[in-house]
Amino acid sequence: MAGGNIGDRAVVLGAGMAGLLAARLLADSYRHVTLVDRDALPDTAQPRRAVPQGPHIHGLLGRGQQVLEELFPGFTRGMASLGVPVGDFGTSLSWYFSGQMIEPSETGLICVSATRPFLENWVRERVRALPGVTLLDRADIVGLTVSGDRVTGVRVQAHGAGGAERLLAADLVVDASGKSSRTPRWLRELRYPEVPEERVKIDLTYTTADFRGPLSIHLTGDRIGLVCVASPRSPRGATLVRTQDRYSLSLYGLLGDRPPTDPDGFLAFARSLPVPEIHAAVAGAQLLDPPVSMRFPANVRRRYERVDRLPEGLLVLGDAACTFNPIYAQGMTVAAIEALVLRDHLRRGHPPRPRAFFRDLAAVVDAPWDMAAGGDLGFPGVRGRRSVAVRMGNFYIPRLQAAAARDARLSAAFLRTAGLVDPPTALMRPNVVSRVLFARRRPGVSMSVQSGGR
Ligand SMILES: Cc1cc2nc3c(=O)[nH]c(=O)nc-3n(C[C@H](O)[C@H](O)[C@H](O)COP(=O)(O)OP(=O)(O)OC[C@H]3O[C@@H](n4cnc5c(N)ncnc54)[C@H](O)[C@@H]3O)c2cc1C
Asked: Which residue intervals of 98-195 are DSSP H helices?
């Protein structure tokens, strides 16, 4: 039975992960929920034209898995039954920071290693089946309709057949149209104040290739992959994972360092990494398709909570509100956490009030933003203001990671915070700080860390 305790119609702009999760919750409170997307929305797991990041590895962090399990009970078991590798984040993945592996450790956090199209399709199938939910695909959202200080719907233009424009009336419009969201422009045109924006430019390039197994190193059983995180000492990074039907390797470089798309150049870049196992694993494996590349210019945060006049009936979430450097794998998990903020507001029994919603949204975005944008400021070539907190974080975290090379408790503490389950303050608890400060040297493990970088 569709919800309806709050309103009749909600419209969600964009049927990516953020839009799908928002629709899942809106369906509990609105009689009709329409998800509008410009893409053809397939009923199989295939990459979509309008989601160019789809072919690249999409890790779902620990908190993301927990939220998906809560919103779709049986999620983890269901994915495992379809062949998706599932394991503990601390033992099924090997984590390297500054070229040094941290000690494996049980974190209690579950890694569900699906490709982005596979995960999105699984969620989309379930949202499509909810009572009251309609997916309107191949339709561009071209503007908002407004009456007084209230958004009353959206204008959409169907693709093909003359592209007729139509109005979709709505009590609530949720913009989840991704990083190219036009809401700031629409608000400007409607004479609302400018939405302040923060940017940390990183000029990142991702290049990803898929391989048929088996690989020449052992990645079967519970082993899901290897993560080599870029740092100022070692500014190239990579993730190698096993998914439901392939092995994928994403290589990345920052500040204009671009992993090539020709197979030889791709392998040469892999060979340049501080973790030789990555190149060794794929060097003899069969490429499924030519490598694909994507550039990601900057972390961008739109500060809706700082706008003092906004129309009623309009919310923004997902990448449309904040995009993070993808090397931290936060985007989908933050979208899931933001969906819970939406749920909290819907549970108040009245239509969400934008200013209160954006205030709460900002509170949950702060920590991942500080980790991503703050971590990026550890790279000397990244421009931006380095506050005391940013400097402290970029001094302390590399030392914690170095100490975690022989301290499983530190590994678990770090991965729980990076997984957005525990807050960053958990890493400042006395029992953690003392383990970092009094870490003893072990042969072959360097505790000397250049300042900056995560
Ligand atoms: C290279 C790369 C790797 C990444 N890796 C990870 C990772 O490991 N883990 C992770 O959690 N996140 C990762 N991300 C981020 C992740 O892709 C996003 O944060 C996440 O998908 C949430 O996005 P969204 O739903 O807000 O937007 P999107 O997924 O971009 O979806 C937006 C939707 O809106 C539609 N749309 C846009 N404009 C219009 C319009 N005008 N009219 C109609 N429809 C419109 C689009 O068709 C699309 O379907 C990565 C990103 C990149 C670039």
From this structure: 116-128, 183-189
Q: Burial, 349: exposed, middle or buried (Cβ in 10 Å; 0-12, 13-18, 19+)?
A: exposed
**41 CA: nearest ligand 1 atom:** 49
Please report whether residue 246 resides in a domain.
yes
* Residue to mutate (ligand 1; options 38, 46, 65; most atoms within 8 A of CB): 38
Give the CATH number for residue 30.
3.50.50.60
Residue 318 lies in a domain: yes
**Tens of pLDDT, residues 224-248:** 999 999 999 889 999 999 999 999 9
Q: Is this model's pTM higher than 0.85 or not?
A: yes
Q: What is the pLDDT of residues 77-127, one digit of tens each?
A: 999 999 999 999 999 999 999 999 999 999 999 999 999 999 999 999 999
**Which residue, 50, 342, 53, is CA-closest to 174?**
342
In a domain, 164, yes or no: yes
Total domains present in the chain: 2
Structural domain harbouring 260: 67-115+200-297
The predicted structure's pLDDT at residue 439:
86
DSSP 445: B
Give the binding-site residues of ligand 1, using a 6 Å CB cut-off: 14-19, 36-39, 50-51, 53, 56-59, 140-141, 176-178, 180, 206, 294, 296, 318-320, 326, 329-333, 335
Would you say residue 276 lies in a domain? yes
Helix (H, G, I), strand (E, B) or coil at 231: strand
Which residues share a beta bridge with 249? 209, 240
Q: Over the stretch 361-376, which tens digit does the pLDDT of each residue have? A: 999 999 999 999 999 9
Identify whether residues 132 and 278 lie together within a single domain: no
Q: Are residues 317 and 237 in the same domain?
A: no
Same domain, 222 and 247: yes
**What backbone torsions phi and psi does residue 258 show, to the nearest 5 degrees?**
-115, 115
Summarize pLDDT for 24-63 with one digit per residue, the tens.
Answer: 999 999 999 999 999 999 999 988 888 899 999 999 999 9
Based on the fold, state whether residues 97 and 153 are members of the same structural domain. Answer: no
CA-proximal residue: ligand 1, atom 18 (nearest) = 331
Indicate which residue's Cα is closest to atom 52 of ligand 1: 53
Q: Which of the 8 DSSP states describes residue 373?
A: I
Q: If you measure from the C-alpha of residue 176 to the centroid of ligand 1, how many angstroms do you get, rounded to a whole number?
A: 9
